[in-house]
Amino acid sequence: MMGPRQVAQGALFYEFSLEDHVPPDHLLRSIDRFVALGGMRAHLAPFYSSTGRPSIDPELMIRMLIVGYAFGIRSERRLCEEVHLNLAHRWFCRLDLTDAVPDHSTFSKNRHGRFRDSNLFRHLFEQVLARCIAEGLVGGESFGADASLIKADASRYTKVDFSDWSAADAANRATQEYLDTLDDAAFGAATPVKPKAISPADPAARLTGANGDRPFFAYSTNYLVDLDHAIIVDVEATAPIRQAEVGAVRDMLVRTQDRFDLHPWMLAADTAYGAAEMLGWLVKEQGIEPHIPVFDKSERKDGAFPATDFTYDPDTDAYKCPGGKELRPYWRNISKGRPAFGKDGVKKYYARKQDCAACPLKPRCTPNQATRKIARSRHEDARQKARDIAKTDAYVASSYARKKVEMLFAHLKRIIGLDRLRLRGPNGAKDEFHLAATVQNLRKLAKLRPNPV
């Protein structure tokens, strides 16, 4: 028997509860237990006027942003539409069926104003991290660090030569932020080398071809990750320059210790972080074992003995070559004192000309020069410690564990959808990176601490 035709009929009264229509296993229901925004109003209170019309509830905007990053909704206009239509989104945002959804322009107004002035997204990230620590998901003993390139909202087809570019009198927001960060070690002061090309839309973004594809303008998101459960303990935005990325890891390690008393005994990273200065800082100042490949250029292209084949004797401050001869900084008495290391932090050791000339190993040691010389960094002891660690089983285990950081970047780009920025300027990059890292930690909390049955 065919059923009757269904015709919509308006009812005088409805009994409807959003709570009953959100499934128990829904992602937002799992995340909601760990989103405590009660202190946000007190944090933002100094940035609101005491007079005038009431503003949109900041907690509502924060919850809507969490929804957007949790489900890869990058457009704020589309986010407002999704929250308007989706019952689970309305439930998470504490909106009833008849409550109006804020206009998308409200986000821009608050993001460029009180949210940024109050450093709200950093505060939100640290609040979620504190919950991860309270739930026992952060061991605080082994950390991993890495950086990933994120495309900027700038087209490579509109680039101009850096020498031909100048800021307009009425600079846009991204240009003003670029000018403000010229002395920032994470951006303008990361390297004295000036870029060849610049984007007028986002001057702080750097043109890079590091991915092996066509060059593009980008920023770097830097993660410091606890390797126990892959919880992000800090995040930082920098220019896509190795010096800036290394400096960001140092800043994040110090900040994490100051704010959460987390000080790892081991840091795992790739070769980009294996420079002598970084290894020396980790070993001597922080007491952290560097599970990092040494950034080493001692291998010879002409097939000659590398520097690692020469043995250093700290008692005599001399190297011994494979032929048994010594290399010293000086072979005569120096009456006037000289600094032990040069401005580049390196001390050079030289063999005697007569020793090299009579040595049968000279064609394999120094075929193109009369004598052999060795350069030793002031942090060579830290470099040697990193080499010794690289021979252990613990290093093999940490190398596998470090892949958790790369998996977080894959999740960031594929699931969160942050393969290209929507906001411009250094502050826009910071906002997006902090929000994305916050949502990644929330998703991890929801996975490892599910709702009780």
UniProtKB/TrEMBL annotation:
Pfam family of the protein (one): DUF772
Cross-referenced InterPro entries: Tnp_DDE_dom, Transposase_InsH_N
Domain Transposase DDE: 321-446
Origin superkingdom: Bacteria
Domain Transposase InsH N-terminal residues, every copy: 17-112
Protein name, as recorded: Transposase
Species this protein is from: Sulfitobacter sediminilitoris
Higher taxonomy: Bacteria, Pseudomonadati, Pseudomonadota, Alphaproteobacteria, Rhodobacterales
